[in-house]
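Hi Y.,

Following your request, here is the sequence exactly as I used it, all 341 residues.
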Amino acid sequence: MKKSDFYFELPQELIAQDPLEDRASSRLLVLDRATGEIEHKTFRDIKEYLRSGDCLVLNNTKVIPARLLGEKEGTGGHVEVLLLKRIDGNLWETLVRPGKKCRVGARVSFGGGILIGEVVDTLDEGNRLIRFEYEGIFEEVLDKLGEMPLPPYITHKLKDRNRYQTVYAKYEGSAAAPTAGLHFTKELLKEIEEIGVNIAYVTLHVGLGTFRPVKEDDILKHHMHSEYYEITDETAEIINRTKKSGGRIICVGTTSCRTIESACDDEGNVQPGSGNTEIFIYPGYNFKVLDNLITNFHLPESTLVMLVSALAGREKVLNAYNEAIRERYRFFSFGDAMFIK
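Below is the corresponding structure, written out as tokens. Let me know if you'd prefer a different format.
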């Protein structure tokens, strides 16, 4: 299976640069994975496709303002630090630009010295381990100095940082938002619950690896990035009960999908607990838990398009994407949505 099998031509102007004022007013393309039939709706219409006894699985991770702009001590050179993963206490794995200026021992000042970071190690892929020094609570310092780490294809400045959070975001730790969830409002979720749909929350902290391109032409040689997840006893019980009673498991976003597919046994029973997942889902994969998926429109040749193709079939997905392009849908993080039924 080749990377080029998942290529499509996307006009640059269809990459959404700003979120819509009303989250639930995004467009919704509905794809029937059995027939390939396509419907065009508004996201609020998602209620029409849900029924009592179904389970909606949401990722309640929260994006941290992980982008820090500082100056190298001694030279004053500008340095950008992106927080990727907390290793322990004040020690973080980071992405530093320009990396050449920040060898082991280099110190970077942020906010006029409110926060100081010292590079203590260089990792295999060029990432840096940085130990931070500050007074007070790190999260409060970060909230004051940090910016939202928007994807590289978004060039507009975000006016309201909460628009890069889902309305149910709870546990801090992501460097990118689980963007399929950005379409939900609290009112819409309440209406969905009133239908009789169960809501289950998982946590998967999204890393920047989600934007990492597939470099190998043979996709089987691609090494998937690792991300941390947690599933509570309550969530596992809701999902397993729904499955046993004949309800559908509908994941909101590829992150929720990857979480439950990583945490189940061979019979499809989701196990509570935590861990790291490197699951790579591509055509030929047998889904054990998921039945349907709500997702955004993804980058050409990305692991996310491959996951969607595993569920609905490559040809049907690419046909739906080409239809979305013809209909001028908005693509990527702040773009429109797709429901695979």
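The chain has two domains: 3-63+160-340, 67-145.

Thanks again,
Q.
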